[in-house]
Specification:
elongated
Length: about 130
């Protein structure tokens, strides 16, 4: 025999809505993550800034040592030994015929127009 049973209907599940406290917690969590990101970024920037300052200090020290060494070279340069070495290679004082004299005079560039003509032409072009 066949029996039929009535089906028992399951009650529909209600749609869950977020409450105000859930929204506040979600916003707080997002703000917390954002703040951690900002702090992490700030730490990276500070670390890079420290590296840059260290490199600048190293560069300044190297420049200072270079200037010091250059000064030592200039003060230790013995011109008499350089002249002796040059004479050893056959260099000698030039004779009178080897001198070449140049006459240098200042040449003032002369404009084709006077100053008043320049000013007048400027005003004419302006208006």
């Amino acid at each position: 025999m066949a029996t039929t049973r009535k089906r028992v209907k399951m009650p529909k599940q209600q749609v869950k809505h977020m409450t105000t406290s859930s929204y506040v917690m979600l916003i707080g969590l997002i703000a917390f993550v954002a703040m951690i990101g900002i702090l992490f970024q700030h730490a990276l920037i500070t670390e890079k800034n420290t590296e840059i300052r260290d490199l600048q200090k190293t560069l300044e020290d190297a420049i200072q040592v270079n200037d010091s060494k250059e000064g030592q070279l200039v003060t230790n340069m013995n011109l008499q030994s350089i002249e002796a070495q040059a004479r050893g290679y056959g260099m000698s004082e030039p004779v009178q015929e080897q001198y070449r004299r140049e006459l240098v005079t200042e040449k003032k560039e002369e404009s084709l127009m006077t100053d008043s003509q320049i000013v007048r032409s400027w005003f004419e072009n302006l208006f």
